[in-house]
Structure formats: structure tokens, C-alpha cells
């Protein structure tokens, strides 16, 4: 009996889930056909049908990472500064799903930095991320929620803050539980909102 | 003729240099006996004398990374806020040496996150790094260079900023040359120094 399209889709879904699980626990360094087969309860032989080479498996994993990142739900609690806060909350490992995807992103940096084409692709992705933050910084400045100042600096700083907090939280989840991450973010944003204080000059009418 | 201690030390130095160069260009994912042998112009057989297993090579590479990180020269341009700035400048990839060591650190995160013991060791290292920043934040607050406020938040935020800027600069050195990294750091520190502005209350004597 020929396999139906539904069977094929179901199997593909299972393979994706197994690849994801292996990456979330072992990283790209631990991503092997053998590990995926064990996770799937299948033979390595079956998997070579999907992934004839290690490179094919890694390419599939990178596509899966991008697909899941793009399709994840996004917070939308407002415009301006609230939207900037949402963008950073969407990055941070505040849930187990977000922890897994961040752990896989961080894990992928080793491969990406060793491959000039992939590295350029990552640089483009991060530049796009900064640009999304930039739009929100500008909106927050226009709304008077952030002080004037070079918005590209604020956007690059916000992305640095988010990425660095991700790394710290992945290595030390006990020191950076979700509430602590959010608190640090809110303190960071409060600092941006305060900005350089107006210089208090002596009252000329005194 | 038996080999002298000097020969042994010279060979060890060459092996370290080759391991470092492989990690700087290919990362931990590309760290193999074969790659180190090629870099050294030696046989894989010779290297198995130093590294009987892949694990031994990785352990050696991690030790080398820590040793070079601990022994690197540190900036000492002052106390308080200047010392906090120095600590962050010491982290950023502002020179080719610092770029290589950062690229190797970032590359090592994949392995470290997959290994609970290594992960705990990294968490401890980053906690020590935050503690060093904390001491400098407190000194800057005491000197009146930073506003009062929870110093542990400022220290964790500063480490996040530094780590995230490292990642961005590694992927996009054209967008983050040394001068731009320093500029972003100085803007970040200026924001911290400004802090929450004093609330201007109506003059009760008006």
C-alpha cells in the first residue's frame, strides 16, 4: 500500500521534533544521525533517506530554527517603548520553548562563525533585528518616552543587552529566572527613558 | 640522543599555538587532530601522543582558553567608573587577539551548554565576572560617578551589554569596528551615569 501524503507529513513532523529535541539538549555539536534516530526510536538507515549527509542534517536544523523563530507568537502590548520592551521579551528565555530556541541559536553560533556565507547570513539577521528595534526606538522618541539621541546607538545597545542576557540566563538559570530577567530589562529601559538629565541652570530671575 | 626539556617546551608551545589557531578559524566544531596536525605541519600520529582522544584535545583547548584569558594584559586607567569601563573594554573584541579569544569563547558555549559540569563552571566564571563589575559599580557609586540604585542590577546589565556586543561584533565586524564598539560603550556608560533624573518639584517658596 503506497504511503499517503498524511503519513509523509506526520513522519516529517516527527523527524522535525526529534531534530529539535536533540539540538535543545546536545546542541549542534551533538547533532548526529545516530542521536536523532535514537530520539525518534528509528533506525539510522531510515534517517539517511531524509538526510544523506551530516551537512544535510545541519542545513535542515538551521532551517527549522529559522522557521520556528519566525513563526513564534509575538507580544503586542502597545507602541513605542512598550513595543521595544515586547521585542526584547520576545528574545529572552522566559519560557521553556524560548529557552530551547535560544539554546539552539547560541549553539549554532560556532558553526555560523566558521562558515563565511552563514556568518554573513547571521550578520544580516541581526542587522534586521536591530532595524526592528530602531523603528521602535524612534517611535518611543517621537512619543516622548525616550529622550532624543542617536536612535541607532540605542537600538544596537538594546540588542547587545538582550543577547548578553540570553547567554547569562542560559548558563545560570537559577540566577536569572524569568522574573529576574524581566526586572533587569525594566531597569535597563528605565535607564534609557531617564537619559541624560536636563542641566539645571541657575534661575535667571532669582 | 634524548630530547631536552627545552625541546619539549618548544614543541608544547607549537602545539598550543596550532590548537589556538584552529579554534580561532574553525571553532570547537572544527577542532580535530587532523586539523591541528595540518596547522602544525606534523602527523596525526605525533599528536595522538599529546591527545590520545578527542576529549583530551577539547579539554586541553578549554584549559588553554582559560589560561590565555587569565594572563591577558588588563587596562588600568583609574578607579570607579573608569575601572568599570576598563573591565568592559578588556572583554570586547577590539584587537585581533581579543577577536580570536572571543570567537573561541563563543564557540565553546555549544559544548559547555551540553555538559552540566562545564556549564556550572561557566556559570561560576560569569558570576565571578559580574562580581568584579559589581565592585567597580559600588566604587563608582561611592565616588558619585553613578547614581544610587541596586548595584547588582547595574553589574548584571553591564555584563549583558558586554557579552551581547561581543556577539554582534564577531558576526558583523564591518558594522562594529573597534571605534564603534567603544562609542556604544561610552554611550551606555553615559546613560548609566545619568540615571533616573531627579524629579523637579515646584519650588515651595515661589
Automatic annotation (TrEMBL), chains A, B:
<dbReference type="InterPro" id="IPR050109">
    <property type="entry name" value="HTH-type_TetR-like_transc_reg"/>
</dbReference>
<dbReference type="InterPro" id="IPR036271">
    <property type="entry name" value="Tet_transcr_reg_TetR-rel_C_sf"/>
</dbReference>
<keyword id="KW-0238">DNA-binding</keyword>
<dbReference type="InterPro" id="IPR009057">
    <property type="entry name" value="Homeodomain-like_sf"/>
</dbReference>
<keyword id="KW-0804">Transcription</keyword>
<protein>
    <submittedName>
        <fullName>AcrR family transcriptional regulator</fullName>
    </submittedName>
</protein>
<dbReference type="Pfam" id="PF13977">
    <property type="entry name" value="TetR_C_6"/>
</dbReference>
<dbReference type="InterPro" id="IPR001647">
    <property type="entry name" value="HTH_TetR"/>
</dbReference>
<dbReference type="InterPro" id="IPR023772">
    <property type="entry name" value="DNA-bd_HTH_TetR-type_CS"/>
</dbReference>
<keyword id="KW-0678">Repressor</keyword>
<dbReference type="InterPro" id="IPR039538">
    <property type="entry name" value="BetI_C"/>
</dbReference>
<feature type="domain" description="HTH tetR-type">
    <location>
        <begin position="9"/>
        <end position="69"/>
    </location>
</feature>
<dbReference type="Pfam" id="PF00440">
    <property type="entry name" value="TetR_N"/>
</dbReference>
<feature type="DNA-binding region" description="H-T-H motif">
    <location>
        <begin position="32"/>
        <end position="51"/>
    </location>
</feature>
<keyword id="KW-0805">Transcription regulation</keyword>
